[in-house]
Amino acid sequence: MNEAAILAAREDRKKVAQFDLIRSIEKVMLGPERKSHLLNKKEKEITAYHEAGHALVSSVLPYADPVHKISIISRGRAAGYTLKLPLEDTKMQSKNEFLDDIAVSLGGYVAEKEIFGDVTTGPSNDLQVLSALARDMVTRYGMSDVIGTIAMEGDGGRAMFGRGVVDREYSEAMSAKIDGEVKRIIDEAYAKALAIITDQRKVLDAIAVRLIEKETIEREDFELLLIANGITPKAKKDIEHQPVV
Amino acid sequence: MNEAAILAAREDRKKVAQFDLIRSIEKVMLGPERKSHLLNKKEKEITAYHEAGHALVSSVLPYADPVHKISIISRGRAAGYTLKLPLEDTKMQSKNEFLDDIAVSLGGYVAEKEIFGDVTTGPSNDLQVLSALARDMVTRYGMSDVIGTIAMEGDGGRAMFGRGVVDREYSEAMSAKIDGEVKRIIDEAYAKALAIITDQRKVLDAIAVRLIEKETIEREDFELLLIANGITPKAKKDIEHQPVV
Amino acid sequence: MNEAAILAAREDRKKVAQFDLIRSIEKVMLGPERKSHLLNKKEKEITAYHEAGHALVSSVLPYADPVHKISIISRGRAAGYTLKLPLEDTKMQSKNEFLDDIAVSLGGYVAEKEIFGDVTTGPSNDLQVLSALARDMVTRYGMSDVIGTIAMEGDGGRAMFGRGVVDREYSEAMSAKIDGEVKRIIDEAYAKALAIITDQRKVLDAIAVRLIEKETIEREDFELLLIANGITPKAKKDIEHQPVV
Amino acid sequence: MNEAAILAAREDRKKVAQFDLIRSIEKVMLGPERKSHLLNKKEKEITAYHEAGHALVSSVLPYADPVHKISIISRGRAAGYTLKLPLEDTKMQSKNEFLDDIAVSLGGYVAEKEIFGDVTTGPSNDLQVLSALARDMVTRYGMSDVIGTIAMEGDGGRAMFGRGVVDREYSEAMSAKIDGEVKRIIDEAYAKALAIITDQRKVLDAIAVRLIEKETIEREDFELLLIANGITPKAKKDIEHQPVV
Amino acid sequence: MNEAAILAAREDRKKVAQFDLIRSIEKVMLGPERKSHLLNKKEKEITAYHEAGHALVSSVLPYADPVHKISIISRGRAAGYTLKLPLEDTKMQSKNEFLDDIAVSLGGYVAEKEIFGDVTTGPSNDLQVLSALARDMVTRYGMSDVIGTIAMEGDGGRAMFGRGVVDREYSEAMSAKIDGEVKRIIDEAYAKALAIITDQRKVLDAIAVRLIEKETIEREDFELLLIANGITPKAKKDIEHQPVV
Amino acid sequence: MNEAAILAAREDRKKVAQFDLIRSIEKVMLGPERKSHLLNKKEKEITAYHEAGHALVSSVLPYADPVHKISIISRGRAAGYTLKLPLEDTKMQSKNEFLDDIAVSLGGYVAEKEIFGDVTTGPSNDLQVLSALARDMVTRYGMSDVIGTIAMEGDGGRAMFGRGVVDREYSEAMSAKIDGEVKRIIDEAYAKALAIITDQRKVLDAIAVRLIEKETIEREDFELLLIANGITPKAKKDIEHQPVV
Which residues does chain A have within 8 Å of residue B74's beta carbon, measured at their own beta carbons? Predict the structure, then answer.
């Protein structure tokens, strides 16, 4: 909120409006815009389809957060980004939400692969985040029936004081089962993302084309685009009425 | 007791009553109340059923401690809590008590899953505690017949001076057996908790509904609610007559 | 001996008698008596049977040391204790002595389980000590025919300078064999302890009942109790004639 | 660019020409020329065929970068080198590009083995780089269908603060699958490089012979040589128009 | 030699005689005599047979060093000792010498077991030394045909700078083979020691009886005892003519 | 070269002749001569055959360096040594050269075993060096077809900053394959060395006998000895014309 207040002050506006808030989230999470760093034509296309993949899957899956903005203007290390915000402030996340989040994260990778028949290093951060999430589901939250309600790791994790090492407590046999469950969860989410992107190829193209044209799509535009393609946008909630941090 | 005395002093009462004692336990263990941090409606329902699950299983199992208070007012990181106190001050705990404790810990998870068909990150701390307990039963207390009366780890644990590492002494084969026993213990406790929650669904609903209404249920009310549903409360003992720490 | 001299001085006696010596051993090994920390009735019973188990097995097995005192007065972290002293000062211990020592250590656990059908956290220290002993038999003293006369670990153990780690030199296959032998040794000692406690249930009850009544049994009383039950006490030797440390 | 500017200044030229730019890249990446350190005749031949192998494979494979210069003048630790530059500045790399890069890296090894029936320590750095690349494809970029879209390692890698160790999180079973995929990727790239070097043996000889004669081949000469042997050079782009770093 | 000179000086003798030399070796290696620390009768017998076992096996096996002195006077941590000295100063040791050395080291353990049907903690240092020796034969000296002429470990061993750890380079499969070979070597040496002690039981008894009587046997006496029992002592060489360190 | 210049200066000669150069290499690599430390007769024989083994295998195998000097005068920790110098200064080594180097290193061990039917600790340094070399062939240089062109370890090796540890990246399955290949390479080199030593036993004896007589054999003498036994010495090149370091 601080960051948002500074931005509003600079531009001499009294109210920290939704506009400022979103801009401040973008800046804190992704770094300032890098207009000078232009993507070449091929990269722009790849990035557009990648972000369209995230946005489309997020719009279709019931437990995923609605999309507030999509952009292919580079920020920090990211070539583009899709900003999603939850409908309500929540303390807890559920298994169904995690499963849809993983599918949304895979949306970029799946779109690249389906459209270009090749994948780039672009999704590497997506994979890192979704893999950690899938592993946590299995080892911390009891969300795999095969493993059951066992927590494998304490809050302190595996590293102690940043220098020692705590050997994992469980056996190789258990470790292999965990790997199997993590893979199953990701593979099922992949199938879900793939089905959406294949079924709604027309919408994916529409989002990507719009992004290549305009570089950024705001929520209203995006929802019109969804409606035009027969997808009902998620219930809208005024972001100004709920603190995000 | 110190904390209790301070609270009593603040409110100008002479005697450190049971009321103060319980409030001080809550404050030391969970942190101060956070009335400003309101749960949304869905979270309130989930939390109510989660705590009702703990409370119901604790009330039915013979070796579990009786419930003194249930609350869905957030404290620290916990969305809600169920306060149990032993009938007598004890130095030792038994295998039967551990087994029931694990089932009680699973009560929250099981209730969430049965009622909502989904589970949240809420039980993560429960799982961590019950997993450590089940592992200690197997590796420190000789409470698994398959493993037998072998202690796998010394008091110093695996980390030495906070920086070195002591490789576990036992083989991968033994480690797999330990994992199997830990899982068996937890799965059996799960089945016990599930049976109670399924059989006494009506009582679970009653506790949850009351919690959503009132946010907090004290011992007397809780016991009346149990009796109304055909469950005999555990023998009551005046908490003022036995020091808790 | 120093400690014994201080105790004798305090009570104005000239000679460091056996009485002082035993009291000093108790104090150094277990900490001062904690009369204020009373066990509840149930715990008193469990502790009495636990100590009776140690004392009975120790009295029956030929290579175990004779019992000098049994007590259920809490000392330090121990709820009770059984004081055994060797008949002669020795530098070496033999395989037969180790095997009987392990059975004696299991006597407490076995008694708890047989009498109450449940086991407590009480024997945790016993298990830790006997497990380390059984492992040393196998990995340091060549006392397992399956493993043979190989020493697996040097004097420096696994930790080097308290901070590094020396990975065990032997294979997983050898480690599994070691675990198997450690388990076999402990399981056989368990069977030995169980047979004694089952066969001599009457004596066990007699010792436990006397302990609950008197809290402490000195050597003479204990030997009379054994004789009354048809067990010949071990050859008595005057403890004052041999230095213990 | 700095380095290039210094070189241009020294030779009193106003414009940082392509010539300077390439020389600066060579100097920064490989160290200064070492004219005094002459290779013996045999080594010169081996090095010529090794570099010819890289250059030929790079020229044939569609996703590899075009060759700008080949040299067998020793620089730093390298006996020779092949300078490749991408046609366009890019932020992302794709799976197809990685696969061709690995084949290009193997070109030197394959050429040595095919021509001399023996291999030297020369390719050791090539193998190190291509092995790390193949492993990253499998464990960071989701570029193996067998492993799927799982990231095995975070950005922080396995070493923490240069002194601790983070044990890999995955099982031995997963590790064996990863090794299998890494090997498969490298073996397939090997087959691709081998096919090119066998099929285009005449071109390989021509490049090597020219290198032994002249020690260095610049881009124009190299492309004429390719054309003379029926290979179409990749689309040329003026290097001065795109910043390299 | 320094230590020997000091001893000679103290006793006012001009020449550092063999007598002083042996006494100095004893003192440096074992610590000063501890006449005050008397073994009890049983321990004296065990120690006498233990040392007789070492001395007998050493006298029979062709590659073992001849015995110079046997004693059951405690020195440092050792209850007794057998002093052997090589016939010649050597820089190298051979496989046959190592094999006999291991059998000699086992002589004490075997004697204890054969005579008393029990084994003590006494041989623990013997086992440690012979196990390290057998492992070195396999992993450093190429003395196992199964493993072959591979050295598994460098001079720096497994620990680096006393604080890091160097993970063993070889596989679990190789580690199991190494363990198998180490065990085979020790088991074969055991059989050799056992055969000697069984076959020459009369000599063993004679040595042990003499030791119990006199506490120490010097070389001349020992050789007479061997001759009397039909064993030819090893060629005698005057120890004063060859420096030992 | 520095060291050689000093030696020449001491002896007042102007030119750093081949004689000085070789002496300086000996001194830097092996330490000064230790005339005082005499080997006993048996050790002299073993050492003579050991060095003769290295020299013979080196003279027969095509990719091994020619022998410049053989000596059984102790230097530093080595009982004797065989000085080989490459015919030409080279930057690269090939697989064929490594394979012959390993066989040459085994020549000493094989000779000891064949002649004396026993092996000593003497070859321990040879084994260490050849094992590291064979492992590098497999894990760094792509010289095993079974493993292929994968580099298993970076330049930094397994230890980081001399204190941390980098866990090997590859699986146990891969580790077992690597061990298998390392063993195969060494076993094949062993067979090669054994065949030479068996076939050329007469030459081996001749070299050893000469060494025992003279303690040192210079290149010219050695080559005459080879010729006399029907072996053609490698092409001679004047060592003064090529810098060695």
Answer: 91
